[in-house]
Amino acid sequence: MKLLCWNSRGLGNPQGIRVLRDLITNEDPSLVFLQETKLKARAMENCKFRLHLTHCFTVDCVGRSGGLSLLWKGDLRVRVQSFSLHHIDALIQDGDGPEWRFTGVYGNPEVVNRYLTWNLLRRLNSGVDGPWLVGGDFNELLHFNEKRGGRPRSENQMEAFRNVIFDCSLRDLGFRGPKYTWCNGRAGSRAISERLDRFLGNNQFCALFPQFVVRHGMAAYSDHLPVWFDSEELEKRNKAPKLFRFEAMWVGVEQCSQIINRVWHTDGNGGRMEDVLRSMKKCGEQLSEWNKKSFGNVSRKLNMAKHYLKQIQDRDSLHPDSVVVTKARREVQVWLEREEVMWKQRSRIQWLQEGDQNTRFFHSQANGRRKRNVIKGLKDALGVVNEGHMRDRLIVDFFTDLFTSNPQRHQEEVLASVQQKVTPAMNAELLKPYHADEVKAALQQMHPTKAPGPDDSQCAFVKGRLITDNVLVAYEMVNYLRHKRHGKKGYMSLKLDMSKAYDRVEWSFLEKIMLKMGFAYGFVQLVMKCVTTVIFSVLINGEPHGPILPTRGLRQGDSLSPYLFLLCTEGLTALLIDAERNNLVWGLKVCRGAPVVSHLLFADDSIIFCKADVQTTRNLQGVLEKYEAASGQKVNKEKTVVVFSKNVDAGKQRELLSLWGVRTFQQYDKYLGLPNLVGRSKSLAFVDIKRRVWNKLQSWKEKLLSQGGREILIKAVALSIPSYAMSCFQLPLSLCRELEGMMSRFWWGQRGHEQKMHWLSWRHLCESKFRGGMGFKSLHNFNMALLAKQGWRLLQNEGSLLHRLYKAKYFPNSTFFEAKLGVNPSYAWKGICVAKTWLSEGCRWRVGSGESVFIWKDSWVPGYKLLRRCIETEGLPASQEEATVDRLICPETRSWKFDTVRALFDPMVAEEILKIRLPFVPCSDKWIWTEEVSGCFTVKSAYRLFQMLRGREMAESSSWVQDRLMWKKIWKMNVPRKIKTFAWRACRNILPTLQNLRTRKVDVEGGCCFCGERDEDVLHALLFCPQLREMWRQLGPIGFKFQHGKSLLDNVKGVISSGSGSDFTIMIVICWGMWFRRNKMQMERELITPFAAANMALSLYKSFSAFKGFNVTEGKNHFRWCPPSSDFLKLNVDGAVFLGDTKAGIGMVLRDSTGKVVMATFVAESAVLEPSTIELLAVFRGLQMCLPLGVPKLIVESDCLVIVQELKAVQESFSF
Q1: What is the pLDDT of residue 619?
Q2: Are residues 696 and 753 both part of a single domain?
């Protein structure tokens, strides 16, 4: 079925009728909605016959404007429900098919009155209970990128449109064809194009027509394009041969394990790779056969299990708790879980775990992927559309040509510039033989249902460096170009993009450059074997085509490929350094004393800074031509951007642009995904973040998520979208509030007919889960924590390019904490300066030599921010005011000057100073982060500190410890996430009971749906309803009686303090079952007995526990001592602090590979009170004990993770 929506701009003209008739004749739509017909009903009746349509409903025009018309064929049943000057609302039914709703909309053309259209949609939504399609000319945009030319659309206008779509549970159905549906018909700089016409649908409608297509058509009349809705694809996909995929739902099935063991034990004993491949193929064949014959179709088996359960319940209704019924229920749960796992694997959603009944969400994601992964046709070089076999041949030929090597030249010239960097020691490490344990560790890094490779392998190519370094340096350079208005020398930046960078890497160039850099020949041959033994095939609409035998290129997605590509870029780096050394290319220097920056490289994104003159341009082009000829790389001129400094005149800009053959774009262009220039409108610069968050949250598929799934989506997806930008820039506070508002509306969003009532503010939701919140993030505080990380890196990495640049420009004669904004500061530096104040609250000097630490000005004593706040120092002379800590240290003994310290400070401060341990050898003073035991900065601890400083966390009370224990138990329960979220809402008293609804001014009638009690609160609904008494008497927690006069929170704490952990969990699960029973009766008038609801909830709990692989009775993982290998001894150490007696002790046990105790002892320590210190001392004492024994090989085990990490770390320790 096809629908047409078109703003015809008047059909009184015969030309308009001819165009419309041509559209209808060629496409044959069943339903047509026209706007701005500018005709009366009688005239539209005449048009109906000329258009060969059967029925017509018309809203008359007013004067020479407006007019709506809905036309349809005779085989379509249409019932108009309501209409106005701006809409027609109707129920549609095609034959015996399901009924659905269509609303044709013509948005109010006046901006001041457009809110009336949005209110109209909200009123119509209140009566929607089924599939709903909304289409027409809305006269509004959703995002800035839906407009080209003219002034930017007001963000408030677009926000209002987005809000009504969200409130009505609709989503934009997308489109194919031209990007814009309206234009003003002008040319040049006055031309304006916008996407004003669209279709919106709710989740039921998209599920009813899963194969729909929306197209922007063409018409030789009106300034609007016709918009088509087609309920099904015209081209049916061919049945492709099914490829073998291991199903995650097979895990745990005994027959599956037997097949795998049988195949590998009989055929997998060969040591050759051919034997491994043959066994894998045979295993896949047998698993496919078993799945087809025995395991069966999941949906069919689930329906059979449900049908069997229904038969048993109908036959044995008097004994619902019988063994047979329980077994049948578990069988249904097993197949429900398998169905959820199956659709999760097909959806490829990694941020959401199964087990919380999000099957509909996974199913919709999988269907969406299947719909997107369709290629109907492709244009060739002549513009001819190829379909079917010709389309497949075109794709295979393209990739065959792309991966075919070309004759290379100038390789030796490029290689001559590359310096050796790999030392013999490095080669010795690389050539070490690999062991089975290393192979096992690599296999365990693989995701169970994803391609090989650790998930975090591409987060940073070089340890210690971040992508944000390049962003900040590039932003500083562009900021300099933006403000350079004077001087004879002009400069420019050239942002390059390598076309198909990975696919064009020549294997010969990669091999030669690795050898030139000093890699051992054997290692190079091993790497090249991994690169060259590749065969590709192309999946086209699910069917493999090929094979393609490449002779160049690197596999994208391979964990090794980014590193190999970086080795290739060493050739470009070497050429640029040579050109700079020979004065062929001059880099850019932002100020006196700043480093000269000529290029920044990150993977295939490159940005070059140089003088803006013809000679430099030609020299640079020569460098790039040499690199392209040698490596196979090719600069993509369409994506290359040139930015000039302000003092380069327009004539020279045009001359240089003609040499490069590129365009210029000096505003809001991006480098590494972030804007390299933020102007006056900060919100406009970061509007893409808002659009991406809104698109993610408003998608109808996300509305299928459970409450637990929504929590994960907000934390893992929505909050992560702005994180990258917040690592470099301070987002406007208004944008943070808008993003938080989106997430809050999504969290409290409706499911079914539940109203969108915000039961808690976002501020309370951002509190820790162990303090009664949901653990969401305050975006402003999170932004400050991420920017504080940049400040911390400036403190620690003084040799980095970023530090040297910032140091020269913003604090050349002072420290980072003393730095000011400076002249013409960049937007990035402004954000770091704001975060600098917050960072200082958690930083403290670790005294080394004491020469850099001021006694009175700096924070260096634990527990005291500044000593001037503790004692009177105003009377001291200026020389003593500037005194450093080294004056308090005896250089010969490397100890404190006790008399000086006790004379200068009050006793409490002096005691803390004397506790500070000084290094035996003088070393430099270092900043440490006081919020972590390791002394290293973490964003998590910084956010926690900033929350506290902003007063976001609750003040500690007398019952705080007990409350924390309760919340911890709730969130650690081994139950589905939706039950945890229910428990949180119940304990916070924010369930929508009748009493809570009336408290929030919601007009609800009646009382408890079971007993009629008017004041139905949480306690009544879950515990004290008369119908629940017998159930709780038999199934309630043993040894505890619920208290009427106390809240549910107090009753839960009482159960925790008096009973076992299993009693608490069972109580919460049964409460969830009672709430489920109450809602079934309240919403659907379905009566479930309390015992049936409790058994259903307990069955879900037990099946979930079994599904997750936990022991329901124990619920904990136990770790056992493992003996060392035969040539090693193992030393286990531990330390303990007894605060009451101000004593400490350590214990040590030395055992061999058989577990036999070689030596054991314990030592009392009286002067150590810090737990981490006693743990470290335990390791030290243990080594002292082993030294006289002459132990050649020793393994030391400790239960203190911080100590183990510090001892194994290669870099300098920051612990204190």
Answers
A1: 92
A2: yes
| Regions of the chain short of the pLDDT cut 50 | 234-237, 317-319, 351-352, 354-355, 453-461, 667-668, 700-701, 752-754, 872-878, 952-955, 957, 1110-1117
> What are 1033's two structure tokens?
């008497």
Q: Are the C-beta atoms of 43 and 15 separated by less than 8 Å?
A: no
Spell out the SS3 assignment of 871-904.
Answer: CCCCCCCHHHHCCEHHHHEECCCCEECHHHHHHH
Which CATH number do you get for residue 63? 3.60.10.10
Q: What is the pLDDT of residue 161?
A: 93
Query: Under DSSP, is residue 1008 helix (H, G, I), strand (E, B) or coil?
Result: coil
Q: Examine the domain organization and report whether 630 and 688 are in the same domain.
A: no
What pLDDT is stored for residue 783 in this prediction? 93
Q: Quick: pLDDT tens for 475-527.
A: 888 888 888 888 888 898 888 888 888 888 899 999 999 999 999 999 999 99
Q: Which of 1130, 1181, 1118, 1195 is nearest to 1156 (CA)?
A: 1130
Per the structure, the count of domains in the chain is 5
* C-alpha to C-alpha distance for 287 and 243, rounded to whole angstroms: 12
d(C-alpha 15, C-alpha 4), whole Å = 18
d(CA 81, CA 84): 11
The domain in which residue 1101 lies consists of 958-1108
Q: Are residues 543 and 602 in the same domain?
A: yes
CATH number, domain containing residue 1180: 3.30.420.10
Please tell me whether residues 631 and 556 are part of one structural domain.
yes
Task: Please list, in sequence order, all residues whose beta carbon lies within 8 angstroms of the beta carbon of residue 584, skipping any fewer than 6 positions away.
Answer: 616, 619, 623
CA nearest 352: which of 604, 861, 711?
711
Close Cβ partners of 249 (under 8 Å, ≥ 6 residues apart): 298, 337, 338, 339, 341, 342, 345
Q: Would residue 358 be called left, alpha or beta, if left means φ above 0 and alpha means ψ between -120 and 50 degrees?
A: alpha
Instruction: For the full predicted model, state whether its pTM sits above 0.70.
Output: yes
Q: Residue 268's pLDDT is what?
A: 56
CB 803 within 8 A of CB 794: yes
Indicate whether 299 belongs to any domain. no
790 within a domain of the structure (yes/no): no
592 domain residue, yes or no:
yes
